[in-house]
Here is the input.
Amino acid sequence: MNDLYQKTLNKKISFEGIGLHSGKDSKITILPSKANEGIVFKRTDVKKNNLVKACFKNVLSAQLCTTLENNHGVKVSTVEHLLAALYIFGVDNALIEINSDEVPIMDGSAKDFLSSLKSIELIEQSQKRKYIKILKKEELIDGPRKIYIEPSDSFKVDFKLNYENKIIGDQRNLVNFQKDNLEEVTESRTFCLFEDVEKIKKFGLARGGSLDNAIVVDENKVLNKEGLRNEKEFVNHKILDLAGDFLLFGFRVIGKVTCYHGGHALTNMFLRKLFDAKSNYETIELEKKITVSQTKAFSPIKEVVNA
Here is the structure.
């Protein structure tokens, strides 16, 4: 939905869970915030200089997740699924209190975040929402990976994966975030190859990973007992990640993104390049509201029992 005015929550909402990479227990509380504040994390376990703005310029690392860091070295990692949920739900301004350095992974998707967000209401604020409207194509090529954006009437993502693994294989999906039912995107979980699990753990990552919060794929099968939630869950999760990372631009983008075998690192590199290509976009405010059927874009999320 493209709205005229910025929005925030009408009351606070909390989540608890384990950090995917740290393995630590983590609690977050999302609170209402003033117009033009954007999304800001507050580390409650740090006494001072504990605010971390959700901005692409603050991305410290994009290895397997998006990690933000402020000028004082205070970090918050694995922010992408929560940011995607806030983007899809329509939140522009929020203060997110967090008692550790990693957002809880929940079930590995944005499903739990959105399910709880739907229990509250949004408040329309006095300031207009600003959009970045793409005027000309901008592209970034990094070896076999490529991402580009071109003019469109809404935010669309066309994502293609190319894995040698037969289960993941070649997957492609095109999603219009304004018009399409986003349920399959929001419920799609993070994934990894079984052969990579030990390698990832040697880097000190995935300490909290399990079949409850990630899809693990062996050579010819999915190890999760319940299988996949939708036919294109792998590429749909990549689209979810991209939406969360794009919220770091600071404005909602009106344009079509096409990405080939990308990830957090490629998206952040691209946002930095796009920001500098100022002749390729303009900042606008809408003159009238463009709405979509609430049931179409935000249909109830199915409850799925994890392994």
Summary: The longest strand covers residues 25-32. The chain has two domains: 5-129, 131-297. The longest helix spans residues 233-246.
